[in-house]
Amino acid sequence: MEWTKVFATLFSVAILVGCSKEQGPAFEVPSTEEEYLELYFNKTESGLDRPYFFRNILCSYIDFATRSIDIAMFTAEEMQISEALNRARDRGVRIRYITSGDKQANTALPVLHQDIPIHYGDPGFSMHHKFMIIDQRVVINSSANNAQWDLTQQANNMVIAQSKDLAVAFVHEFEQMWGGPEDLPAADKAKFGWEKEKSPRNHFEIAGVPVEMYFNPQDSANRRLIDAFEAAEQEVAFAQMLFFGGDLGAALLGAMEQDVKLFGVLKEYYTRYDLSEYWTIMPAGAEVRIDTLPRGIHHKYAVIDAGDPGAMVLTGSYNWHADSIAIDDNLMVIHDSAVAERFRANVQMEYDRAILQPDWQERLVKVREKLRKLGRI
Fold it and tell me: pTM higher than 0.90, yes or no?
């Protein structure tokens, strides 16, 4: 299905409150009962920043809410989003908020109205979601936290879907961590990590586009990634903040042995670690550059066989890390060639402005020697 057809019947209406008008215009929320699926990046096609774009999207959808807002967000530091939530509460909108157990990383939450309940979740900080459910019919799922640098400086993506079926799946995940359907959290009934029950449904169709949804750990986002890598026939393109998943690395090496091209970008900071899979895939022939920008990429996505009718995108909040297997996270799989082309273009943009690490072969020798001494290889 052509991506443009997803939006063909939309009529948009501007939300006039939004965030600060001095920092960009209010985003236009589609005013329609029809299903839609939208994709956004907070960088332009040429790589320029769109500093307030994501924040204005979130504020506008919050201002659009009439009944309920459920949020599961790892960290929150953006004050204007909290102010928008306060406005929604003043309108009588029910708000439920789940975050990680790290109160120091949630500096924007103390300004929320006292009658907005916050569940600080698992004390092990395993709650890593970044989603919002509006009126139990619109889902906003992103790689970005509600933090200033995530929304304005680090490269991130956001998928917005109006689908009651998908919203039901997200509410099911939310209420497992909340402890039930009530307005207030029930800490004694809340489930995180492996305590959660498997999602009752993983496959959806939204505005004609097949979509899969996996909540971690119970649905195994990691397993779905491996299956996608093993099914690739031409190319796996990616933009990732980090890559420490040994079994994911093995799956990609296996794909490369079948002449599948591996092409992408990793954040430079995390390639400094000896256990980064960067040091596994590079000598195998991967075309990978490193992002050296101060904030850099925060994406967590892969594109499988862009340009092919069976192309797919795997995105969400799930990091490619062995520790991610056990945390609360999500992976969205979108089967649409036009969506895949947009993500593939984003990989190319990030690749073009990244660099090939000049001394990677010399460093590889040192990394392997360290790992050999540790008995890792």
Answer: yes
